[in-house]
Amino acid sequence: MRYNYVMNLLTNITQIRGVGPATATKLADAGIHTVGDIVYFLPRKHEDFTAVSSITDLHPGKVTIEARCESVNTRLVRRGLRITTAVLADKSGKLNAVWFNQPYRAQQLAKGDKFYFSGQFEYSHGRYQLTNPSTEHSTNTPKQSQRLVPVYRAIRGLKSQLVRKILTELKPFISMLPETLPSQLVAQEKLMNRSEALLALHFPNTPEDITRGRERLAFEELFSLILASQLNRQDNAKLQGYSIPFKQPIVASFVKRLPFTLTDDQRRAAWEIIQDFAASIPMNRLLQGDVGSGKTVVASLAACQAASAGYQTALMAPTEILARQHANTLAALLEPCGVSVGLLTGSVTGIARQKVLDAIARGGVDVVVGTHALIQDTVQFAQLGFVIIDEQHRFGVAQRQKLLDKSGGHMPHLLAMTATPIPRSLALTVYGELDVSIIRQQPKGRQPIITDIITPTARPGLYQHIADELNQGGQAYVICNLIDDNPENDIKSVESTQRVLKQSTLGRYRIGCLHGKMKTANKEQIMQDFADHKYDILVSTTVVEVGVDIPNANIIMIEDAEHFGLAQLHQLRGRVGRGIRQSYCYLMLSSHNPPSQRLREISTSNDGFYLAEIDLKLRGPGEIYGKAQHGALNLRVANLADTTTIARAQKSVKNFISNGESLDDYPELAENVRYNQRRTILN
Ligand code: ADP
Ligand code: MG
Question: How many domains, the chain?
């Protein structure tokens, strides 16, 4: 109780009894600086010690025993594989335990203490064993009361029981934490209070505690996420936009010049944009469609409309190569209609740059294509009315402010284009402020990409097939997880793969290398050389993931495919299948284990929207669209596959807004919502 009047969530972690400078440093390394950070450091899972068996009673399956370690040793079996074996004993008998690549187990167990071991009891190589069990010091687990033990994400150099000790110390503080949500809402939705929920997860008594605690915290996360996006939507509606009238003849003449007919989905998307244009509220729309579904054509049609009303369009691409590609595509589509296209990237310099800048400022260029630098630096537009952002889902508040400044207090219409499909639940929550147009069908006559899962033994045969394709003038990507070799594991790197290929039957082809540590100019040069067919094979990390268009490349071979996410694999596959050649995607397995469901799904479907939904279901809560993929999305508990809770939160947000509630009355909720409002989510 001594903390109640001195401590709050922002109090430094060192103020907690038992946390000295050394511990604080280790916690800080894991991103835990304040009392709030540790209170919200939620368990990854809970270990159930309610059913401890004795060794002689074990049946194959997931088991927990309480035992002492009699002997333990670790050996290096081959590079990247260390095996630790131990003999465990309780009163009833003995049992072998095996860990793969967890050499620290030896030290941990050597002291003869008693532990709980939880793991898979199975028959392997002619004997029964306990495989990769987790361990829990049995003296730290209170015998009767608490047998559901929270397991926290490992913190380097800290024992997990120390985290539990700190939290136990904070227990009185946690139970005093005020409610963040409107109390009426908590009652209506029959949720646990905030403090109840936190206590339920850190100190559960029953499995139901855990479920209810998670439910409450997940609800709150979704509620603030949805509220943030709805507030952004309201803010957008207050901005002054440009009304661009629908001019049927302009659209007709653009469509007439196309060498193909638009698909129904393209038509619908174009119509949705044209309608948004006509309103005085600025458009804020996301255009989704797999690679090659024809988004650029739709965006060009819209740019044509904008130009006809005297407004300029800016298209921003993630890289210079893509900007150049877009500039060429747009020029071919738009210049016949009398709409001029200019390119402005970092490599346009000197007098040429000045000329482009002048033209943009005078209104002499209708459509300007560049990288994100277009809105960042000093480019002055005569009348910027339409902004297209390629391969980025959402524009942050800061970027939008820049746009406002550039167009004299008016907000240009925004269209974000992406080939990464967003599942419906994400569109409703994270991207709720955006309107969404979807191009789901591919233009007629596209050959589907053939996708196969390849086991290690089939590698030589595959190389032969690749050689045949290269001989016929095709090109291949080979994708690896790593740039350099890592002695800790067997995962293939760009470095080692290039070496291996050079010594294989593919060694006589021209092999290029690409990865994220190279300088930008260097990377772009290599991509350009591959596009110009100066290489037959390009060994690369996922840096080729973003929309590069090299129609002649028809093979993509993905090493250690099980280490990539589903969305990522689909994006990578989209690098091929863009030309007239039959294209292939090969998913290489690193072991003889059966392929994961992820790989089986992608090998049987070419539909990015279907795969995005599956991806969401296959991932666990929290890891969905996490930091690596989608910017800082602050989800600790909520599961974006949980459509029921999303619907509940959505309804509650609607009520909150329509009841005229103000965030000013909920300061802590407000802080969280504002954080979510400011997020910029990069693709
Ligand atoms: P995305 O930007 O969605 O990847 P693009 O707009 O670049 O797709 O279109 C990919 C290719 O398909 C381009 O060569 C384009 O000319 C062509 N294309 C677009 N729409 C159609 C259509 N309806 N029918 C046939 N080809 C099309
Ligand atoms: Mg594209």
Answer: 4
**Same domain as 478, residue 546:** yes
Neighbours of 481 (CB within 10 A): 19
Angle, helix 608-618 to helix 597-604, in steps of 10 degrees: 170
Expressed as residue numbers, the domain containing 330 is 243-439
**In the block, residue with structure tokens 């009841």:** 659
Give the ligand with the smallest distance to the CA of 329: 1
State mean pLDDT over 566-595: 89
- Show which of 605, 620, 644 is a domain's final residue: 605
Residue with the smallest CA separation from ligand 1 atom 23 is 262
Q: Round to whole Å and give the CA distance between 297 and 333.
A: 8
In the structure, which protein residues have their CB atom closer than 6 angstroms to any atom of ligand 1? 260, 262-263, 266, 289, 291-297, 443
Q: Answer yes or no: is pLDDT of 455 > 80.
A: yes
Q: What is the pLDDT of residue 25?
A: 93
**Shortest-distance atom of ligand 1 to CA 390:** 2
Report the pLDDT averaged over residues 15-32.
91
- The proportion of the chain whose per-residue pLDDT surpasses 90, expressed as a percent, equals 50
Q: Where does a domain end: 553, 577, 605?
A: 605
The CATH number that applies at residue 145 is 2.40.50.140
| DSSP labels, 361-380 | HHT--SEEEE-THHHHSS--
